[in-house]
Predict the 3D structure of the following.
Amino acid sequence: MKSPWRTFLTMLLVTVVAAGVASWAGVRYGLSHAPEEVDLDVAVHRDLNLTSDQDRQIHALETAFAAQRADLQAEMRAANKDLAQAITRHHAYDADAQQAVGRLHAAMSRLQEKTIEHVLAIRALLTPSQALEFDRKVAKALGFEPS
């Protein structure tokens, strides 16, 4: 007759092994079915067969946009810090918290507007066939798959 501890340890070992195999299989399945993330800047340089002139001009646009994006992201972090301080201090959605949220939303809005302007500035440098492919990539990056 088997001891209860031996039976318990055997069942525990079987459970741990089964959980490990299921975890491994779940991760493998998830990774193989994950949607492809679209990095528009990488796709532009990789897929659109840019001329050296286009590449140079787009690189200049990207450099300028990176600085604008960094400034706006810093503003968003500052607004979030102010929001955290207001909530911690007053434990209410008071005027200080509302002002911080307003600053955050304004910075987010400006970042979105600057991003759209940046995307359209790149598009203006493309040939018609490049622009068509670019439009598909932009739509995909925004979560829309045109039919």
